[in-house]
Write a structure and sequence with these properties.
Length: about 250
């Protein structure tokens, strides 16, 4: 159990995991500015969120393996690939990849969690900073995230953002709960927005190892049909503070 306010960008050991692979961070309630300068990122707008928990790490193969064994869920599409980047059974600390939105949702629910909303994801990624392109500032930095790479890397290998979240950009795209609508920001409610009521594609956030630096900006929005299986799609779970109070602490 970690309070977001207890971290700085330089805290901890960026060379590996700190604490449990299933650890969550409490993001404080309050306002933030969401959005950016490009197309579906506009307009920038104020959002106000209740406090919530979000996974400190992207979901790893070792945790997904526990889920598969517990409920008999099938392996993601790329689980048994022989190369070093995609073999889930051989690389337990790499992020799980190839999961559909439905598989990501089912995993989070098995853990007593849920997918974060798009607004929750962006507030968490910004780490309490306003107006910057990346969690660390405005200057691209290959020493801060896994982008333009050859494959996934073990989680926790880069310094966390100011909320103590690792790999919040880069490594794998992360599914969120919301349906995608390019015009949604123009009518988004200020308080705890949940996204459109329906749609054809689900939103992904955070960029991945296959992308250039642009999609790794914290405001960037990406979208795919919820049933696709690509080797750069992963997941990070969340839980509202009220949900956490009704169940064991994260």
């Amino acid at each position: 159990v970690i309070a977001a306010s207890s971290f700085s960008a330089d805290s901890g050991d960026p060379g590996g995991l700190e604490g449990s692979p299933d650890e969550m961070v409490l993001i404080p309630a309050g306002p933030f500015v969401m959005g950016g300068d490009f197309d579906e990122e506009r307009p920038r707008h104020r959002g106000v969120l209740d406090a919530y928990w979000i996974d400190r790490y992207e979901v790893m193969n070792e945790l997904y393996a526990e889920y598969m064994q517990a409920v008999g869920a099938p392996a993601p599409k790329f689980w048994n690939k022989s190369d070093r980047f995609h073999s889930g059974d051989k690389f337990p600390r790499h992020p799980v990849l190839g999961v559909t939105w439905f598989e990501a949702k089912a995993f989070c629910e098995w853990k007593g969690k849920r997918l974060p909303t798009e607004a929750e994801w962006e507030k968490a990624a910004r780490g309490g900073r306003e107006g910057f392109a990346f969690p660390w500032g405005d200057v691209p930095d290959r020493a801060r995230a896994n982008y333009e790479g050859q494959g996934t890397l073990p989680v926790g290998g880069f310094a966390p953002n100011d909320y103590g979240l690792f790999d919040i950009v880069g490594n794998v795209w992360e599914w969120v709960a919301d349906w995608f609508d390019p015009a949604y920001y123009g009518r988004s409610p200020e308080l705890n927005p949940l996204g459109p009521e329906e749609g054809k594609e689900k939103v992904l956030r955070g960029g991945s190892y296959v992308d250039g630096i642009g999609p790794n900006r914290v405001a960037h929005r990406h979208w795919f049909p919820p049933n696709v299986q690509y080797k750069w799609l992963g997941v990070r779970c969340a839980k509202s503070q009220a949900e956490a109070e009704r169940s064991p602490q994260p």
